[in-house]
Amino acid sequence: MLRIIPLGGLGEIGLNCMAFEHSGERMLVDCGLMFPRGNLPGVEIIVPDFSWITADPEELKGVVLTHAHEDHIGALPFLLKRINVPVWGTRFTLGLVRHKLDELGLRADLREIAPRERFKVGESFVVEAVRVTHSVPDGVALIIQSPSGTVVHTGDFKLDGTPIDGRPTDLERLGELGEQGVGLLLSDSTNSEVDGSTRSEQTVAETFTRLFAQAKGRVVITMFASHLHRVQHAMALAARTGRKVSIAGRALERNITIARSLGFLEIPDDLIVPWEALGVIPKQNILILCTGAQAEPRSALSSMLKPDAHQLAIEPGDTVILSSRTIPGNEPLVTSMIDRLLARGANVIYPAIEPGIHVSGHAAKDEQRRMVETVKPRAFTPIHGELHHLHRHLANARDFGIPENRLHLLTDGDVLGLNESGIATLGRVPVGQLPTRRDADGWVPPDALDERRILAEGGLVLVVVVLQVGTHKLLSGPHVWGQGLANDEQAFLPLAGEEARRSLNAISSALLGDDAFVRDTLIQAVRRTFKQLSGRKPPVMPLVVKL
């Protein structure tokens, strides 16, 4: 029996990682991360909990990647540090993976694949890549064949009839497979709540052409660093209209360099100039491509709003185009950034007032219907999305004509079994989400996150006392310092120190020799003072030094 187990991506946007298991062998499709939302201090990314995979490392025969977005490849280093297995992907996808691994000093067995190419993963899986259109180059769907049946995994896709790179989704190959018989379709649900069809990327090209003609000064376009189709038509438009291009943002520079080296971007050598040269170029002849459409504090666009931004500083007369959707939860930050850009005198264009500056890379309802009608699966499972996306896609599939008993909803950890007799859910495996930093090997446990939230909300009070070894005599202190306290709370520190001294003087010399008791006494004294004066009890860190 073929078992299909999502380790991430079914119940959240991001974290995409799905295991396929047959005859004691496992294969992962994608290995993505998720960016934190909510109050997670010090957390840069979230990766899947791979403990179920690493418990039996010899069973994992490889990882197959659908495309190069971080939510599909970003957790790969965390897995490869624990299990060194082959990784299959298309040329551009592996180009970004290779760079990511090189930065971390990791080596991996990277195996390039091409659309309509078949390859084996272990002895149980034969996989074929099928070209799909998405918002990053070289994306593929996967045909996964096993002794128990055939599965189509769409990856992220849209059905753009006029893609920028001229490579539409290969519906012909998927249709051929549909005639042969597909046991299960796993299909992208991100835009399942959107009626109609997703607009073509050509819409953005046409909108950019109109906006460039209207711009009297510099044009600044901010976008996701992976949106290289959009980079291509922005570059081509700049060349046609006599604008030189400067690139701001490390991730964008990296992706453009890799894409050019692999033949995915065609850019004249003299088109790109360093930002230092912008001062001698007429403003109407400048295009700046940058990251930061989500108002990330350390992004290029945020830096361009700082007083020391030099030639890249936003100026009156600039046309700033925010060419991306706002990620849910980022709305206040993005709105604030738009206001700051307007205050600088820039003409700010964003999707709410000019929808044509951004289109999605995901299929809407009509395209999802066409995928189902092309593949003709015996069973259907929605993937990639939060729970409301999955439920809507399941309802859509019911409307598309798939019988109720062939619709299967999965969330992270659920096990779906497929064989010649049919398909059924089989229980669960342990899954989880691990918050961490990009350069870390470990995770931030829940209690540490709780401590960070407390510190972020209320600051910290440090109390130090110095005792004499043997006699336990108080030599110095308590000395009290505060970090992250309000101005009025800083004034409470001497009073807290006095209360701590009184409390220590009230206990015996024997108890002064008990470090744990002394620390607890200091904590209670300081927190009691703050409670009386402010109604709040901040975290207290006591330090007992013996000389």
Question: Please, could you describe this protein's structure?
Answer:
With 547 residues, the protein is of the alpha/beta class. It has 3 domains: 2-196 and 360-436, Metallo-beta-lactamase, Chain A (4-Layer Sandwich); 201-357, Metallo-hydrolase/oxidoreductase (Rossmann fold), CATH 3.40.50.10710; 459-546, Ubiquitin-like (UB roll), CATH 3.10.20.580. 31% of the residues lie in helices and 25% in strands. It is built from 17 helices and 26 strands. The strands form 6 sheets. An 8-stranded mixed sheet has the order 8-7-6-4-3-1-21-22. A 6-stranded mixed sheet has the order 9-10-11-12-13-19. Strand 11 (140-146) and strand 12 (149-153) form a beta hairpin. The radius of gyration is 28 Å and the shape is globular. The mean pLDDT is 91.
Beta-strand segment tally:
26
The biggest beta sheet is recorded as:
8 strands, mixed
| Relevant CATH superfamily of the largest domain | Ribonuclease Z/Hydroxyacylglutathione hydrolase-like
Unreliable parts: none
CATH topology of the largest domain: Metallo-beta-lactamase, Chain A
Determine the structural class based on helices, strands and strand pairing.
Answer: alpha/beta
Number of helices: 17
Please state the average pLDDT score: 91
What would a concise description of this structure say?
Helices cover 31% and strands 25% of the residues.
Q: Which descriptors would you attach to this protein?
A:
single chain; 547 residues; alpha/beta; Metallo-beta-lactamase, Chain A; Rossmann fold; Ubiquitin-like (UB roll); 3 domains; eight-stranded mixed sheet; six-stranded mixed sheet; 17 helices
